[in-house]
Amino acid sequence: MHNEIDSIEDFERQAQIGGFGCTVIQGLDLRAYTDALTAGPCTEAVFLGCLLEDAATRHIQATGGLIFPRLRNLPFRTYRPNLYTVDELMAGYQRGNPESYANSLDQRVYAHFDQQRQAHSLPVLEALAQRLHDHAIDNALADLLHGAESSRHVIAIMGGHAMLRTDPEYRKVARIAQRLAAHDPRILVASGGGPGAMEACTLGGWLTKADESVLDQALEILSQAPSYRDEAWLDTAFEVRDAFPDHGDSLGIPTWFYGHEPPNLFASHIAKYFSNSLREDGLLAIAQYGVIYAPGSAGTIQEIFQDAAQNHYGTFKVVSPMVFLGRRYWTEKKPIFPILRDLAADRQYGALLTLADEVDEVVDFILEHPPLAYEG
User: What's the distance, CA 351 to chain centroid?
Assistant: First the structure.
């Protein structure tokens, strides 16, 4: 078993213990640590995209270590040791200048990705780089969810990206997320990381430490730019962050596959992928404490049946609640619930399906129905 090292602090701790044999060291700048690296053999050590001095490189290779070099001329890091933050993705954006969003890291990576996918098939090195990047995100996400102290209880909220900040359902989603996250510090609310219902979820997570009146104040600010297509969409979110800086945790999992949609600014942890299929299936896989479905369209409906398949076949050895926010929406406008109810009628997860219209109904059902061990 290899010991994983993805921070300078962990590296220095390992150096004090002595030796880097059987370690995997990911994405670190180690040019100042040549003496520590050459103090002993690096047998079976693996260095993923680390910056090394020549002397360290020679020693590692001579003593049985393996070095995976950084791929060059890319706007993104393939061997990331951690998840993204808003500050990192928005670097290059200037508040008050909507056009400067094109200069942000997020949009520079999207421009590169969009150009590459125009080809009939991805160039082999580009495909490799994207998959290495997404693997690193997988690894960093696992570190977040299964830390040394305890595992997080992930509850996901799905819904349409076009939901306006002024929509009553937006407020309901935000309040649901706020209440769930405040109930138990182990709970981590998660969304697809984009605008609409996804933003409402992470807004609720951001305001975990605040009361409901603060949510109303935040919504008043955000109402100045209801749609993510409005020029002030980003700046009003920054304004809320500035006004209420004492924030809680939430997880956003966006994708550059839909890079024309900006990631929302309220997620404290951002696991951004190139592969949309990995992102969607992965979000549902980690949401073992339940998924809440706010009104949405084709993408949300696809996620409903992905989630149902995971529950139906016990893919992850548990079955989890599926809560549908909006009785009329999910029984008449998009009548998915009757189909799902029939599908689950003789299955274990049939008892974990419900319709709800109010915040209290959703929160109470989730908290009263923890995941169950799959019985087949």
Answer: 28
- For the whole model, what pTM was predicted? 0.94
pLDDT at 119: 77
Task: Tell whether 353 and 237 lie within a shared domain.
Answer: yes
Closest CA to 286 of 138, 177, 78: 138
What letter would DSSP give residue 265?
S
Residue 376 confidence (pLDDT)? 81
Residue 120 lies in a domain: no
Report the pLDDT value the prediction gives residue 19, as an integer from 0 to 100: 83
CB 154 within 8 A of CB 188: yes
Total domain count for the chain? 2
CA angle 309, 315, 316 (to 5 degrees): 130
pLDDT at 118: 85
Residue 202 exposure: Cα atoms within 13 Å on the Cβ side: 26
Distance CA 376, CA 370 (A): 18
Residues in CB range of 238: below 8 A, 6 or more apart: 95, 265
Amino acid code (one letter) for 1: M
Which pLDDT does position 149 carry in this prediction? 63
* Structural domain contains residue 136: no
Which ranges of 324-358 does DSSP label H, i.e. alpha helix? 327-328, 336-343
Q: Which residues of the chain have pLDDT under 70?
A: 1, 148-149
Q: What is the pLDDT of residue 294?
A: 98
State the sign of the Cα–Cα–Cα–Cα dihedral 64, 68, 70, 72: positive
Tell me, yes or no, whether 7 lies in a domain.
yes
**Residue 315 and residue 201 share a domain:** yes
Partners of 189 in the beta sheet? 155
Q: What is the token pair recorded at 278? A: 């990995």
Range of the domain at 50: 3-68
